[in-house]
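no rush on this but wanted to send it before i forget. theres a chain ive been looking at and ive put its sequence and its fold in C-alpha cell form underneath. i want to understand how the C-alpha cells follow from the sequence so walk me through it. thanks a lot i owe you, the record is right below:
>
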Amino acid sequence: MPSRYRVILNGQILAGHDPAEVRAALARSFRIADAQLDLLFSHRRIMIKRDASAEEAERLARLIRALGMDATVESTAPPPEQAPAPTPAPEPTSAPASAPEPKAAAPRPASEELFSLAPPAPPSTARETAVDPSADNVTCPQCGEIQPRRTLCRHCGLDMPRYHRAQAALQAEPPPTAQPSQHARPEPEREVKAETAEPGESAPLLSLSFSGRLPRMAYLGGSLFGTGAALSLIALGLSSGIKGLGTLAMLALLIYTFRIAALRLHDTGRSGWMSLLMLVPLLGQIFALALLLIPGDELENDYGETPEAGGGKAALMGLALIALALTLSYKAIERDPVAAREALLGMGWGQRARPAPKAVEAPPPPAETEPQTPRYAYENQVALYSASDCDSCAAMRRWLQSQDIHFVEHAIDANPAAAAALREKLSRAGIDGQIRLPVLEVNGEMIANDPEISEVQKHLKMK
C-alpha cells in the first residue's frame, strides 16, 4: 500500500515576505475567511490536507511556500513505537464548572486543527449535547477562554459548536488502521481546485473576442504578428497604388493592439479597459512595454484559467512578415519614387506640400533699352515640372524668367494629373529609373534629372 501524506502549517512566514501580503495572498488564492486566517497565523500546527499522495502533498506545499508561508509534508503512517488508540472523548461541557483547563501553551494535534478550517459535518441529534445550551458561559476548548455563550471564540476565532461536533464525530469512528484514508474527511472544493489546477488554453490570437487571458510570450508574438501584417498591407498598397489598403491596415492594427492588450491585462487580474491608456502619448508606449514585464496570476482568476505558455510561432511569423513588408516597400520606392510618395501622402504619412498653381505663365519681361544677348525666339514651347521644396527647380525658374523665355510650370507634388502626365512622357521618351527634378520639356524634347543650362540652350530656338 503506497504511503499517504498530510500537509501541515505552523504559521511561520518565510524570509523576505511581508505578513500582510502573505495573508492577502492566501485569502485570495484559497478564499479563506478572516476567522480561518487568524487561526492560520496563530503559530499552531494546522493540517490543511490529511490524505494525499506524495506528489499531491508536495505540490500543495510548494504552492503555499510560493505565497510566503512555510508548509511541511508529513507521512500519515503512525510511529512504530506507538499503538493507534482512539482519541479520548472530550470533557462534558454541560456545566461551566467542568470546563477543561486552558491549553494555549501546549501544541494541539494537527488532526484537531483540521476541523476548525473544514466545513461542518452533518448535524447529528445524538451529539448535539456536546455544548450545554442552558449554560450562561462557555469555555473555548482550544485556548481556554471563558466567555458568554457565543458561536465564535472572541479570543482565537474558533467555531466552538462545530469543533465539538467534529470531536464527537471522531469518537464515533473506529480506531485508525493501516489505511488512514478510510476516515479522511472530504476536502473543501476550493483546496482540491487549487491543487489540481492545470494550465488551460490561452485566448486565440486571431479573434474578435475580448474574453480570456494571454501570457507574456503570446502577447509579444501577437504584437509582432499584428505589426507585420499591417506593414505587409501597406507595402502592398505602395506596390499596387491602392490607397485604401494602408488605411485599412492602420485601422485593423489599432483594434488588434487594444484586443491583445486587454487579454494581457486579464492575465494579470486587471480590467481590459486599462488598455485605453495606450492612447496617451508616451505613456501608451511605456504601458505597452510594461505589459511584457508584468507576470500573470499563477492561479485561476476572474477572467479564466491559467493559460499555458506559447506565442513563439506567432513571433517568428511576425518577423517574417515585417521582413517581407520592408522588401516590397523598398522595391516599390525604387521603381517609382513619385508614385510611392503620393501613395504615402494618401495614407496620411509625410508632410503634404503647400498647394501650387497648376500652370504658371511667366509675366512678360519689362521693357529694356539695351537688347539682351542671346535672344531666344518667342515661339519656344517650354514646360517646367517642379516641386515646391526643390531648390534646383527655383533656380531653373529664375533663369527662364531672366531670359524672357515663356514657359508653363507644373507642380507635380500638388497636381496628381501633372505627375501622371510626366510619367507617361518620360516613359515614351525611354527615360526610366530614379528621376531628379526639375524636368523640362523643350519643343517636344524631354530633358530630365536637373539638366545644366547649356543642355537646355541646345534645344531652344534663337531669333
